[in-house]
Amino acid sequence: MPILRRALLGSLALPALAHAQGASAPGWTPDRPTRLVVPFAPGGSQDVLGRLFAQAILAGTGQQMVVENRAGAGGILGGEAVGRGPADGLSLLLATAGQTTIPKAIGRRMPYDPDADLAPVMQLLDSPVALLAGPGLPVTDAASMIALARSSPTALPYASTGIGTNTHLIMEDLKARERLNVEHVPYRGAAAAFNDLLAGRIALMFVSVPSVLGFSGGALRVLATTGEQRFPALPAVPTLTEAAVPGFTASIWTGLSVRAGTPPAAIEYWRQAFAKAMTEGALRDRLDGLGVTPAVTDPAAFGAMMREDLARWQRVVAPLNISLD
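-> structure tokens emitted (325 positions)
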């Protein structure tokens, strides 16, 4: 995690939670059921998160929230549903980099502008990714993997969950920094990539920690995770920073956005409602089980984090000539 982002999360998370518990936003409350747009298909991790939040908001505020799945185009259809919708505070986007920073970094044509048409409410969650190695790769840890990938006369194939996804760009960032001889093999999701990793058809991959925790098809060789600290559910696995690459961190974040022009009182209402929901024990326990960590911020901090995220991916994709249009 870059220095600015660390500082923002560390300094703002606890005050945000305390503020949510002790104050209320005057001047605006929803007057009918709201919708939480999840820009992915039902059944995936983001869909699970969306439904958990909807249940927690109902329990905490009495406000009915309908989860609406808008899958397609890497989540851009979901971003469009909110980014081109009314600015009435009644439509929320469960936002990820796939609808905001990554497509903008790639220069993908979108029916909305993530900066002009969406307004940040808060960052909700953060999850590191895990570096996996195939069972036949002659490495014992992240340091030996880096050494092998530098010296290999042939490119080691690595998997991602798709061109232009977090798992693709994180490996490309590591490749450029450490001068690795690796070659990209995109997949449509983690399951098929796991199968080929275990079968030895690919050598390496980055994948979200929730995907690793939810995998039940065989033993995965987890060399490192990419957080600032070791992940609680994988305490024996070192971070990439401590094992091989000082300062290299990366994560998959989830946030909350609304249509630009939404009244500030509505934004504050939702910020407080979601921040309070994440203090509840039942939701916190479920989030821990999913491999994600609360990272509660305010609109300004979330906006700053996304600008930093965009700058990183613009640097990474500049030499790659990626086109998804």
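The first strand starts at residue 34 and ends at 38.
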